[in-house]
# Entry
Amino acid sequence: MRRFKYRAKDKSTGKVVKGDIQAEDERTAGHLLIEQGYIPQSLTEEGTGLLGSTDRVTNKDRITFTRQLATLIGAGLPLATSLRTVIEQTQGRGMKKITEEILINVESGKSLHESFALHPEVFNGVYLALIKAGEASGTLDLALKRLAEQEEKDAAMLSKIRGAMVYPGIILVVVLGVLAFMMTSVVPQVRQLYDDMGETVPGITQVLVDVSDFFGNFWWLVLIILVGVVGGCVYAVKRTPVGRKVMDSIKIHVPIFGGLFRKLYVSRFARTAEMMLATGVPMLDSVAIAIDATNNVVVEEEYRKVLEPIKGGKALSGALKDREYMLPLVPQMASIGEESGKIDEMLGKAAQVYENELDTQINNISTMVEPILMVIMAGLIGVVIAGTLLPIYSLVSNVGG
# Structure
């Protein structure tokens, strides 16, 4: 979708209004304005339709928007009035813009989920499916409330995982800082000392000297390579399917954190399926949307294999059983739900179990990672000490002798 700035005259009042509108092309934008009761005077394309950096919509913006809209609709306000109220309360420029466009589309006769679908960069498939189901069943406020709660849980969980990685990151930076100081300050002095005394530099010390010389003379090359590698990796992960797949595979196989990510993806799947089924979305559609909600292409590929058996009439529990990356509690609870007629509730309980386990493991992550980091740090610093301080001690001892 492309975004256009427009200037138009309101047919009913004759007033000139300005604003933004999204459309496939300029002609479509003009037709949309006419349908909304305006006479277009000028249309100027802003760009490709993607939000600029100042208009970026954050998770917090979307959660706040969803929560406010759910509360207002639940209080009995008409949809258009609710959207206008949200616009007045919204602080984020990007979210305000999008809400204004949603209001325009709703007032022109589009359903809410159709209006949201014009902004795929903000509202994903889970969001759209729940809104559509909520509109069809007359439970839009409950669907929005479920969305807000789930997004809040998901954001909190990701924040905790990122927080758990901060401590290891700080330790790594400290270790690298110590090593850099030793290599740039201590090692050259050790070599100078041996040169002044006419002694041969020991083997391990010579290795450190060579490394120090290389970084001293070719730091610019190291910097270029580092920036190139990091930039290339970021580009590959964000822009190429292969890069994304490699990164997603690393997430679920890396020691310690791999188990956390697997539980995160399973809980996302179960929680999303619960929301879909509870809102009245058919089983096959619910499972397909829940698979997309995991947000890991490797896991999605494996989970998607359950769709054909479900199409063929197989129960969800049977289709999920023994599936790679699927933890056992989910098919077990699904089986209980199928027997009791409360499959959505049972999937929700399975998700809650794994969310609780994630909380506990994340809180203990520092205890799990600290010994490994200490061993690595001790090994690296030990090598540098062996190549610098010990030769100095030996040299001094020989001179004294």
Notes: The longest strand covers residues 2-10. The radius of gyration is 29 Å. The CA atoms of residues 181 and 187 lie 9 Å apart.
